[in-house]
Amino acid sequence: MRDRKGSGALKLLFGMILLGFMAFVAFVGFDEQQYGSLYDVDLGLDLAGGVSITYQAVGDASGEAMSDAKEKLRKRAESYSTEASVYMEGDKRICVDIPNVKDANKVLEELGKPGALKFIDEKNQEVLLPEHIKTAEARSRRSEGVNSNSIEYVVLLTLTDEGSKVFADVTDKNIGRQIAIVFDGEVVSAPRVNSKIESLYAEITGLESLESAENLATTIRIGAIPVELEEVRSDVVGAKLGEKAIHTSLLAGAIGLAIVILLMIILYRVPGIAASLALLCYVTMMIVVLAGFDITLTLPGIAGMILSIGMAVDANVIIFARIREEIGSGTTVRTAINNGFSKALSAIVDGNVTTLISAIILNILGSGTVRGFAQTLAVGIVLSMVSSLGITRLFLTGFYDLGVKGKGAYGETKKTTKLNIIGKRPIFFSISGVAIALSIGLLIFNASKGEMMNYSIDFVGGTSSTIDLPVDMSLEEIQTKINPEIAKVIDENNSSNIVSNKVVDSTQIIVRTKTLNPDERTKLTQMLKEKFDVAEDGIQMQNISAAIGQEMRRDALVSVAVATLCMLLYIWFRFRNLTFAAASVFTLLHDVFVVILAYLLFNWTVGTTFIACMLTIVGYSINATIVIFDRVRENLSLDSHKRYTLKEIFNLSINQTMTRSIYTSLTTLIMVIVLAIVGVSAIREFALPLIVGVLCGGFSSVCIAGGLAHLMMRKKPADTTAQN
Questions:
Q1: Were 340 and a residue from 189, 211, 322, 541 both cysteine, which residue would form a disulfide, CB within 3.0 to 4.6 Å?
Q2: What is the C-alpha separation between 176 and 178, in angstroms, rounded?
Q3: E-assigned strands of 196-349?
Q4: pLDDT per residue over 604-622, tens digit each?
Q5: Cα(396)–Cα(389) distance, rounded to whole angstroms?
Q6: pLDDT tens across 511-520, in order?
Q7: What is the pLDDT of residue 285?
Q8: How far apart are CA 87 and CA 80, in angstroms?
Q9: 598 half-sphere exposure, CB direction, 13 A CA radius
C-alpha cells in the first residue's frame, strides 16, 4: 500500500513538474530573448500588421530568372524590414511578406518595380553588373586628417570574388574618371575613381548625409529584377487591427479554456481534474512547439488552435465514458481505468487520423492563412493525442495510486439510454432531405441570377478594405457619406458599385471595390485619414485579381474533394467495410449541404476561410461517425451467438456513445461560441459556420450515419443476422 501511494505521489509530482516546466517555457522562455515562449512565436501579417504581396511573372520566365527575381525581391524586402520573408508559390509566383512596415502603400508601389541597376563609365559602357556586389551598407565615421572632427558618410561595398577581379580592372582603367550608378534610367550617384581597388571591399565617399548614403545603399542592394512581374494578390494590415486580433483571440481562448475545464471537472470529477491538468499541459506544449519549430501563427491559426482545444477534450470524453461503463459492469476501478484507455484507443486514433488527413491536404493545397490554420490544427491533433493518451493517464493513475479509489470519484454507467434512433430513421431522413433539397434549390436559383453564393474577393477578385472608424456609423450613413468619397478617389462613376458592410458590435466596416492600384490605395488611405479621422494603422486592404479568385475557387473544391476521398479511403482500410465508408460519404455530403444552406440563408461571405471551415466540419463530423461505427464493429464481434438483431446492435451502439456525442459537441461548441462572441470579424467569419457545422455534425453522426449503415447492411443478400 505504501509503495502504491509512493508511486502515485511520484506520478503526480512528475506531472506537475512537467506542467510547471512547460508553462515556464511557454510564458517566460529560456533566455533574454524569451526563446521558446509565446513571445517568440512568429506572427503572421494579419496579427503583426504589414504587407503581403504575391507577384506573377508576365510571359515566359526560366527557373533561373525566377530564382534571380526572388533574390532581388528578398533584398528589396529586407531593406524595409529584416524580418521580411520571400518564397516561391509554384513556378511563376513569388510571395513577399513584410511585417511591421510604417508606410505600407509606399512599399506596394515600390517593391515590384522592374527597375534596372547599371554601372556606366564616361564612355557610356556598362562596366559592372549588380550580381558582382554581395552587399551595400551605409556608414558614418569621423573624417581623417585636418578636419578630423567632421563626419563623413560612405557606402561600403562587399564584392564577390569575380566582382573583385572585374572591379580591379575597371578602377585601373578609370582612375580620375566618374562611374555613374544608374537605376531605372536615372543617375543616382556618380563617384570618382581615386585609385585601383583590388580587394573585396570598396567605398563610395562624398555623400552629403546618412540618409543619402542609406538610399544609395538600398538602391544598390535591390539591383534589378530580371523578369516582368505583375501583382496578383496583396494584403495591407494595420498594426492596430493586428493587435486587436491578438488580444481578442487570446481572451477568447482563455475564457473558452476556463469554461471547458470547469465543465470537465463537474461532469467527470477526478478524471475531469486529470483531463484539465493534461489540457493545460497541451496548451503550453502547443505554444512551445509553435515557437520551437518557427511555425507562423496567423489569425485562422489561432482559431485552429482554440478549436483544437475543444476537440482535444473528445479523446478524454471517449476514455472516461469507457471507464464508467467498465465500473458499471462490476469491474474494479483500476481495471476500469486500464480497460477504458485500451478500448478507446482505436476510436481515438481513427478519429484523429481522419482530421489530420484534412489538415495535411489543407497544408498541401492551401496557401497563406489557410496553410497557417492547417499547420496549427495538425500540431494540435498530434499533441492532443499525446495529452489524452499519455498525460491524462499519468495524472489519473497517480490519483488512484495515491488513494482516490472510490467508484463515486469516477462515476459509473449502470444504465444505457434506450432511444430508438434507428426506428426514427424516416423522420431524420425527411428533415435532412428537406434541408439538402432547399440548399440545392437555392444554389440553382442564385446561379440563374448571377453567382451561386456571396463570394468574397478571395474568389471573384477586387479590393476589400477593413476600416476601423473612430465613431460608430449606421449603414445608411456609410453608404451616403463614405461610399461617395471613396468613389471620387477611385474614379468610380457609381457609388452603388461599392459594397459596404458593418461588422457587428464594432466600429469596423468592410468595403469592397474594384481592384485598386497602389496609387489609388494611397489616395484612399489619405482621404480616410483627412475626412473621417481614421488612423492609418486601423486600415487593412486586400487585393486579389479576378484570375486568382477563380483559381482559388477551383482549388477550394479540389481541396474538399481530395480530403474527403482520402478520409474515406482510410475508413475503408481501417474498418474493412465498404458499407461504413459509403454511409460516411452520404453523411459528409449531408453536412456540407446543410452548412452551405446556412451560408445561403445568412448571406455569409465565401472566401478562403470557407475552405478551412468546410474541411474542419468534415473532419469533425467524420470523427464522431467513426466513434459510433467503432462501437458497432465491437458489438457485432461480441455478439457471436446472434442474440441481437442488427437494428438492436445499431441502437445499442448509438446509445452507448450518446454521452460522448453530447459532451464533445458541447465542449467544442463552447470554444467556437466564445470565438464568435469575442473574436474580431475575420474570426467571427470562421466561427459562425463552425457553430452550424458542429451542431449539424453531431446530429448527422447520431441520427443519419447509423441509419444509413443499418439500411445498407440490412439490404445485403448475405446478411442473415437479422431482419430489422
A1: 322
A2: 7
A3: 201-207, 229-237
A4: 888 777 877 777 787 777 8
A5: 11
A6: 888 888 888 8
A7: 93
A8: 16
A9: 20
Q: How far apart are CA 442 and CA 421, in angstroms?
A: 30
Angstrom distance (rounded) from CA 25 to CA 17: 12
Q: Which tens digit of pLDDT belongs to each residue from 158-205?
A: 988 888 999 899 999 999 999 998 876 778 889 999 889 888 998 898
Q: Which residues contact 95 (CB under 8 A, 6 or more apart)?
A: 52, 53, 54, 55, 86, 87, 88, 89
Q: Please spell the DSSP secondary structure of 564-596, one letter per residue.
A: HHHHHHHHHHHH--HHHHHHHHHHHHHHHHHHH
Give the pairing of strands 151-159 and 201-207: antiparallel
For residue range 284-329, what is the model confidence (pLDDT) as tens digits? 999 999 888 888 787 777 767 776 777 778 889 889 989 998 998 8
Per the CB < 8 A criterion, the answer to whether 509 and 241 are in contact is no
Residues contacting 64, CB < 8 A, separation 6+:
none
316 contacts 275 by C-beta, under 8 angstroms:
yes
Tell me how far CA of residue 465 lies from CA of 90, 508, 544, 661, in angstroms: 27, 10, 12, 41
Q: The pTM is what?
A: 0.74
Greatest C-alpha distance within the chain:
109
Fill in the amino acid letter for 422: I
Q: In degrees to the nearest 10, what's the CA dihedral of 490, 491, 493, 498?
A: -10
Rounded-to-integer distance, Cα 626 and Cα 702, Å: 11
CA distances from 198 to 7, 118, 125, 139, 169 (A): 73, 21, 21, 21, 8
Higher pLDDT: 221 or 217? It is: 217
The identity of residue 325, as a single letter, is: E
Looking up cell 573624417 gives 143
Across the range 211-221, mean pLDDT stands at 82
Range with the lowest mean pLDDT among 286-300, 435-449, 489-503, 629-643?
Answer: 489-503
* Buried-state track 122-137, b at ≥16 Cβ within 10 A, e below 16: eeeeebbbbebbeebe
Distance separating alpha carbons of residues 594 and 586, to the nearest angstrom: 12
C-alpha cell at 103: 508606410
8 Å CB contact between 193 and 176: yes
Q: Is the dihedral of CA 337, 380, 9, 272 positive or negative?
A: negative
Of 390, 272, 286, the closest CA to residue 323 belongs to 272
DSSP string, 405-473: --GGGT----------TTTTHHHHHHHHHHHHHHHHHHHHHHHHHS-SS-B-HHHH-EEEEEEE-SS--
Whether 664 shows a pLDDT value over 90: the answer reads no
**Could you tell me which residues come within 8 angstroms of residue 554 by beta carbon, excluding any fewer than 6 positions away?**
none
117-120 β-sheet, strand order:
126-128, 117-120, 180-183, 186-189
| pLDDT higher than threshold 50 for residue 721 | no
C-alpha cell read off for 199 = 580587394
Phi and psi at 541, nearest 5°, equal -125, 140
Q: In this structure, what C-alpha cell is assigned to residue 145?
A: 586628417
CA 679 vs CA 227, 374, 519: distances in Å: 42, 19, 32
- The candidate with the shortest Cα–Cα distance to 601, out of 432, 431, 454, is 454
Residue 555 burial class via C-beta count within 10 angstroms: exposed 0-12, middle 13-18, buried 19 and up: middle
CA distance 574 to 570: 6
Strand partners, 87: 95
Go through the domains of the chain in sequence order and give each one's CATH number.
2-39+241-409 (1.20.1640.10), 50-114+227-237 (3.30.70.3400), 117-222 (3.30.1360.200), 425-440+548-714 (1.20.1640.10), 463-544 (3.30.70)
